[in-house]
UniProtKB/TrEMBL annotation:
Its EC number is 4.3.3.7. Pathway: Amino-acid biosynthesis; L-lysine biosynthesis via DAP pathway; (S)-tetrahydrodipicolinate from L-aspartate: step 3/4. This is 4-hydroxy-tetrahydrodipicolinate synthase. GO terms for cellular component: cytosol. Catalyzes the condensation of (S)-aspartate-beta-semialdehyde [(S)-ASA] and pyruvate to 4-hydroxy-tetrahydrodipicolinate (HTPA). The record marks T51, Y114 as: Part of a proton relay during catalysis.
Length: 295
């Protein structure tokens, strides 16, 4: 179990969806309601405009408007981490500065994608963002999407910067995470729900969860049980959420699509397409089973 001092953004974080209207516009009222409900149901902090938040298809102006609306809804005590990633360092720096001005407590910065820069360029990218603002960074290591990993040696160097505080880990490499955590003060947050408990058990800070959009209390309960010293209960609760995790995150549809289908939270933006009726019904059935089992 990590100490509160090593959890710069809390431990139970939701990668929040971005609600849209039926016409495809940003639905700020729905975003305010959803954010407030997530915090009321146990989320320590919210990550906005990440993968689940459909950041590739929202404009810079929409990202800022979303951040301001959610801040208004949850108040100043809830950490808000703004996704500012792009494949362009200059654009990322500008997004970071705009997020800081809009009230972000932290910045989620993904590895530049498509161009597949070498590690020296990856490191330079993150350092330019860290130097451009006064808020802490959560580095987003998700090579399955970006094509480029943040190598452990790069993380060790980046950890020396005072504003590089955390990693959202989607590398599926617990051995590497263990090594970096042992040698740095970086707070490791699981970005893959199936590894929430394993990463936490070896010293992780918590998670950034898409599934928490639908079941924030159930996701948090796993960590609560572990912190209470009841590892058997933590494992049992983790097993209960696993079927919904698999259906939402590993059944062929993006987490954004499944979360919105389950929540009835409006449209997704193309090129994403909404879940079909059969998939939505299956999600609903697993969701209701989980609610019944954890009532």
């Amino acid at each position: 179990m990590t100490s509160p001092a090593t959890r710069p953004f809390g431990r139970a974080l939701c990668a929040m969806i971005t609600p849209f209207t039926a016409a495809g516009g940003l639905d700020l009222d729905a975003a305010r309601r959803h954010a407030a409900a997530l915090v009321a149901d146990g989320c320590d902090g919210l990550v906005l405009s990440g993968t689940t938040g459909e950041s590739p298809t929202t404009t810079d102006e929409e990202k800022t408007a979303l951040l301001r609306a959610v801040r208004e809804a949850v108040g100043g005590s809830v950490p808000l981490i703004a996704g500012v990633g792009s494949s362009d360092t200059r654009h990322t720096v500008r997004l970071a500065q705009e997020a800081e001005a809009a009230g972000a407590d932290g910045l989620l910065v993904v590895t530049p994608y498509y161009s597949r820069p070498p590690q020296a360029a990856v490191e330079a990218h993150f350092l330019k963002v860290a130097e451009a603002t006064g808020v802490g960074l959560m580095l987003y290591d998700i090579p399955g999407r970006t094509g480029t990993r943040i190598e452990p040696a790069t993380l060790l160097r980046l950890a020396e910067h005072p504003r590089v505080l955390a990693v959202k880990d989607c590398s599926y490499d617990l051995l590497a995470a263990t090594g970096v955590m042992a040698r740095t003060s970086l707070a490791y947050y699981s970005g893959c729900e199936e590894l929430n408990l394993p990463l936490y058990a070896i010293g992780g800070a918590g998670y950034v969860s898409t599934v928490a959009n639908a079941v924030p209390r159930q996701m948090r309960a796993v960590l609560d049980a572990f912190d209470a010293g009841d590892t058997a209960e933590a494992a049992r609760l983790n097993g209960l959420v696993a079927p919904l995790v698999e259906a939402m995150m590993a059944a062929g549809l993006p987490g954004t699509v499944t979360a919105k289908a389950l929540l009835g939270a409006g449209t997704v933006r193309e090129p994403l397409q909404p879940a079909g009726r059969e998939a939505a019904a299956g999600l609903r059935g697993l969701y209701e089973e989980l609610l019944a089992a954890t009532a």
